[in-house]
Design goal:
The structure holds 2 protein chains of 2 kinds.
Chain A: H1 2-22, H2 24-49, E1 51-53, E2 56-57, H3 58-87, H4 90-96, H5 101-126, H6 136-161, H7 170-183, H8 196-202, H9 206-222, E3 235-236, E4 239-240, H10 243-268
Antiparallel strand pairs in A: 1-2, 3-4
Helix pairs in contact in A: 1-5, 2-3, 2-5, 3-5, 3-6, 3-9, 5-6, 5-10, 6-9, 6-10, 9-10
Chain B: E1 2-12, E2 17-27, E3 31-35, H1 42-49, E4 57-62, E5 65-66, H2 71-77, E6 78-81, H3 93-103, H4 108-121, H5 137-149, E7 155-159, H6 167-184, E8 187-192, H7 195-198, E9 203-208, E10 211-216, H8 218-225, E11 228-234, H9 237-246, E12 252-254, E13 257-262, H10 265-275, E14 280-286, H11 290-298, H12 302-305, H13 308-323
Parallel strand pairs in B: 3-8, 3-9, 6-7, 7-8
Antiparallel strand pairs in B: 1-2, 1-4, 4-5, 9-10, 11-13, 11-14, 12-13
Classes of the chains: A mainly alpha, B alpha/beta.
């Protein structure tokens, strides 16, 4: 049983990575998207906005957010790819094999997380170009955080994908799930400077905790901050969260989403 | 020895009863066919037998294991080729096969050896490094059959194995299937609505509206029909029907054609033509085909309903599939 479970994770992850390498459009977008964001935001907005708070300029504030966005887009897409697999039949090959259903879902999530990390690492590789120094120690701290964020957000994708039969609903998903998740997470602006309603909504968004955790890791490493004045930490009932609290919240949401997703899949197919 | 045994199997979806109490058994090593029009319950039955669906009631055994209670064990023992392709288009043929081998936990040596044997047998060895996307319909189907056989299953399920393929490719695929069956001694359970394809079976169950209405060898089914088939076209169908009935024969009518069975056609025909009152436009005497069997059992031709609708839908789906790359 356990053997079957781990083999399921392994084979599905293996395929996800193989496909990532195979699909040229995905590989190219993995390179181009971060460059595009950095050029647009780095060159454009940075001059316009300047320092977001003492000691932190806009680009430094934004960079962890763009990293989170790159990762989340990758993981949501790979979770939703299960809809493609269903429509083009490959899902049947998985369902008919002696594999565990939970293992299949977790394998998809892990495959998505690993490919998202590759996207993330590519982005980190470009960081020095816009004047952000990346140390090896920072990268090592970021990787587990990227994996956690990716797996949790792929949970969102799976819960949506479980009910979807075709790609037709995809546009709707983009508008009603994808953009709200990204825009209501503090990627582009400090949440503390937004209206109350947005602040409240953002606290229900798992990505918010991921963005903030990444940002805190970055700022700690850059050593530029006086903790009390920076726009970091999510306020929950008057308490400002630390990195570890963010990680805990993200993990709990991730586990719950994954449980719902595997339950939905085992029930349907 | 029986490899599959089905007892009083029912399967209903929310409102529709797709399979209404069927019982049959399949012998080890035979090709067993399910023949019937679309919507007769063929695919539903296969999905129950291969653990994709749970029956509403009744029992189904494969290799002496109750299927719904031993899904994991059953899955190791069966191979499947579905109506619609289940290959990963973005991977090469070899990668698709390799994935299957990993998923079925095959030892490395066996996987390498089976891959080579099967791909060579299917004439795909030289093109194993190519993306499946570049494959033709026939090649894809051959690859799927190779993949279905990779893990040495006891039963290979073929759901409409040659649907939508041209006659030449269909014949080729059947040559491959027969070759493998003799070599690996496996049981094949297939569904089809092509009559000529059904001729490949050792035994056929004819299924219509969720029930098995006949089960025999193709020859047996034709003999049961009673001799030769006479098919006539006349100007006045209803009068002709009355007259044929008066001769103690059982006519079936499809599209202004009247067909019936007689024990000894060659001797019957001259007499019949001489005495028949209605004007005969054309007359044909032939050995019965499975089509005749089907018509006489269900009162309709199997060709009429399908091909048009499903094949069209399928080709539309395939076209759409090609356009919708990620």
């Amino acid at each position: 049983m356990a053997k079957e479970f781990f083999r399921s994770i392994y084979v599905v992850t293996y395929r996800e990575i193989l496909r990532f390498i195979r699909e040229r459009s995905r590989l190219i977008s993995a390179f181009l998207m971060p460059i595009m964001f950095l050029v647009v935001f780095g060159a454009g907005f940075n001059r316009l906005i300047g320092e977001i708070s003492p000691g932190v300029d806009f680009i430094q504030f934004m960079f962890p957010g763009i990293l989170a966005m790159t990762v989340v887009m990758g993981s949501l897409f790979s979770a939703l790819s299960i809809v493609w697999d269903r429509e083009f039949g490959f899902l049947k090959e998985l369902l008919i094999a002696p594999l565990s259903r939970t293992g299949i879902i977790l394998g998809k999530a892990l495959g998505g997380a690993l490919t998202s990390s590759i996207r993330g690492l590519i982005l980190l590789g470009f960081a020095p170009v816009i004047g952000i120094n990346i140390t090896p120690a920072l990268v090592i701290k970021l990787i587990p955080m990227i994996l956690l964020l990716s797996i949790t957000l792929s949970g969102v994708g799976f819960v949506i994908a479980a009910r979807m039969r075709s790609q037709q609903g995809f546009q709707g998903i983009m508008n009603f799930v994808f953009f709200p998740i990204i825009f209501l997470s503090g990627v582009f602006f400090p949440l503390t400077s937004t209206p109350n309603i947005i602040q409240t909504l953002s606290k229900f968004n798992p990505m918010t905790y991921g963005v903030d955790a990444l940002r805190q890791i970055f700022f700690n490493d850059l050593n530029v901050i006086d903790k009390n004045i920076q726009p970091i930490g999510i306020e929950i009932f008057g308490h400002i969260t630390t990195v570890w609290e963010n990680i805990t919240i993200l993990s709990v949401i991730g586990i719950i989403l994954m449980m719902i997703a595997t339950w939905m899949f085992s029930k349907q197919e | 020895m029986q490899i599959i045994e089905v007892k009083n199997l029912y399967k209903s979806y929310k409102k529709i009863e797709a399979v209404k109490g069927i019982s049959f058994s399949v012998n080890q090593g035979e090709i067993f066919g399910f023949l019937g029009p679309n919507g007769a319950g063929k695919t539903t039955t296969i999905n129950v037998l291969c653990t994709l669906l749970k029956q509403s009631s009744g029992e189904a055994y494969l290799d002496n294991l109750e299927i719904s209670r031993n899904q994991g064990e059953i899955r190791k023992r069966i191979g499947l080729v579905f109506q619609d392709t289940t290959l990963d288009d973005y991977l090469t043929a070899e990668e698709n096969i390799k994935f299957h081998g990993y998923a079925y936990n095959m030892p490395k040596n066996l996987l390498a050896q089976r891959t080579e044997n099967l791909l060579k047998m299917m004439d795909l060895w030289d093109r194993r490094k190519e993306n499946v996307r570049s494959y033709s319909g026939g090649m894809k189907r051959r690859l799927e059959i190779a993949r279905g056989l990779l893990h040495l299953p006891k039963v290979l399920f073929l759901d409409e194995p040659t649907l939508g393929l041209d006659p030449q490719t269909r014949r080729k695929i059947w040559d491959h299937i027969n070759e493998i069956r003799l070599k690996d001694k496996i049981t094949i359970f297939m569904t089809t609505h092509y009559m000529d394809e059904a001729e490949n079976c050792n035994r056929i169950a004819i299924i219509d509206h969720g029930k098995i209405i006949a089960l025999n060898s193709p020859e047996g089914l034709k003999i049961d029909l009673g001799g030769d088939t006479v098919e006539i076209t006349t100007e006045n169908v209803s009068e002709a029907e009355k007259e044929i009935k008066s001769l103690n024969l059982k006519p079936t009518i499809t599209n202004n054609n009247i067909s019936f069975q007689v024990p000894n056609g060659n001797e019957f025909l001259p007499n019949f033509v001489q005495n028949f009152q209605q004007k005969i436009i054309s007359i044909e005497l032939r050995r019965p085909t499975l089509d005749d069997v089907f018509i006489s059992l269900t009162g309709k031709a199997i060709r009429e309903q399908n091909q048009s609708s499903t094949d069209q839908m399928r080709s539309w789906r395939n076209r759409r599939g090609m356009g919708g790359s990620r």
